[in-house]
Each structure stands twice: as structure tokens, then as C-alpha cells.
């Protein structure tokens, strides 16, 4: 019995010591200039107060490299983020130490613009982190693009990026 208890404690201690997850923090906002767009939903932003930060969009998930519309999604993001100073409202760090933020350019929610263009999915896994209005606006933007068959919604059955990542972890290929 004693050995079993010790084994359970070691397993639990090992799990919590290595477990990683999002770290919520006090929300903060900053303005800055985009240094580099890394992919379709992540970029580096130079801010006055926080230096250069790596930003992951809150509320959306864009195609992975190699998926349909991956290049168009990145080009669209580069264009939108290069037009003016960018404002971010950040509230947590993700598993990769990126700041998860709502992103605005000229007071326009860039995440919603990506959804309207059919170049991203509403990342419903994290919709609990959105306000009711944000959730409704993101859902409506995605649904509008789906109905109009814009961007990736022109395909019969586009593969969501989270499904692609899972498939890649298992050694498969995305479409």
C-alpha cells in the first residue's frame, strides 16, 4: 500500500512538473509596429512598453503551412498589419510563450477581417475566453464567409487547422 501511494505521488508530481498550459495574466494593451509575420495567425510586434512580443491571435485559427489558402491567408495578414500601427489587447500566454491577444488595425478587429475573407476559422475551442458580443461577431463573420463561399469555404470540405496539426502529429499529411 505504501509503495502504491509513493508511486501515485511520483506520477502526479511528475505530471504537474511537466504539464504546460495557458497562463492567464492581468490584461494589458499596447500599440506597436509589426516586425515580422511568422505565419497566418502569429506575428512579432515592437511595442514601447513591452519590447518585441510574439503575438498569437485570440479567437481564430488559420490554415497551416501547406494547406489550401495558407499563402493567401499570410499575405492578407501582412497587408492588413502593414497599413498602420497595431493595437493588441493581451490576456494570456499560450503553450509556446506567445501573448494571446485581440488584434486591431485602425480600430478594426483583424481577426474578424480574416474570418470575413474566409482565411481563418473561428477557434471555438477558446470561445469561452470571448465576450458574448465577440463570440457572436466571430460566428457571424465565419458564417458570412461560408455562405458566400469566400476563401477556403469555396472548397467542399476544408480541413480545419487543428485537425491538420493532429494528423501531422500522427505522421499524416494535410489537405
Mass-distribution shape: globular
Strand percentage lies at 25-35%
Helix content: 25-40%
Order of strands in the sheet with the most strands? 1-2-3-6-5
- Over all CA atoms, what is the radius of gyration? 19 Å
* Run of helices and strands: HEEEEHEEEHEHH
In total, how many beta strands? 8
Q: What's the domain count?
A: 1
CATH-defined fold name: OB fold (Dihydrolipoamide Acetyltransferase, E2P)
Tell me, what is the CATH class?
A: Mainly Beta
Helices and strands, with pairings:
Elements (H helix, E strand, L loop, with lengths): L1 H17 L4 E15 L4 E6 L3 E7 L2 E2 L8 H12 L4 E8 L5 E7 L2 E2 H7 L4 E2 L9 H17 L12 H9 L6
Parallel strand pairs: 3-6
Antiparallel strand pairs: 1-2, 1-5, 2-3, 4-8, 5-6, 6-7
Describe the structure.
It is a single chain. The chain has 175 residues and is α+β, with helices and mostly antiparallel strands. The protein contains 5 helices and 8 strands; from the N terminus they run H-E-E-E-E-H-E-E-E-H-E-H-H. The chain has a single domain, classed as OB fold (Dihydrolipoamide Acetyltransferase, E2P), CATH 2.40.50.90. The strands form 2 sheets. Strands 1-2-3-6-5 form a 5-stranded mixed barrel.
Amino acid at each position: 500500500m505504501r509503495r502504491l501511494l509513493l508511486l501515485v505521488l511520483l506520477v502526479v508530481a511528475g505530471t504537474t512538473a511537466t504539464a504546460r498550459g495557458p497562463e492567464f495574466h492581468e490584461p494589458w494593451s499596447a500599440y506597436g509596429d509589426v516586425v515580422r509575420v511568422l505565419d497566418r495567425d502569429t506575428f512579432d510586434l515592437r511595442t514601447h512598453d513591452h519590447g518585441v512580443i510574439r503575438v498569437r491571435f485570440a479567437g481564430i485559427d488559420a490554415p497551416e503551412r501547406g494547406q489550401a489558402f495558407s499563402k493567401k491567408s499570410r499575405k492578407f495578414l501582412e497587408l492588413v498589419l502593414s497599413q498602420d500601427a497595431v493595437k493588441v489587447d493581451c490576456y494570456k500566454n499560450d503553450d509556446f510563450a506567445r501573448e494571446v491577444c485581440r488584434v486591431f488595425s485602425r480600430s478594426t478587429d483583424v481577426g474578424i477581417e480574416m474570418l470575413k475573407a474566409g482565411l481563418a476559422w473561428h477557434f471555438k475551442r477558446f470561445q469561452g475566453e470571448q465576450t458574448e458580443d465577440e463570440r457572436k461577431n466571430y460566428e457571424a463573420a465565419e458564417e458570412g464567409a461560408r455562405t458566400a463561399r469566400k476563401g477556403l469555404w469555396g472548397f467542399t470540405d476544408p480541413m480545419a487547422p487543428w485537425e491538420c496539426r493532429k494528423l501531422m502529429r500522427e505522421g499524416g499529411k494535410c489537405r
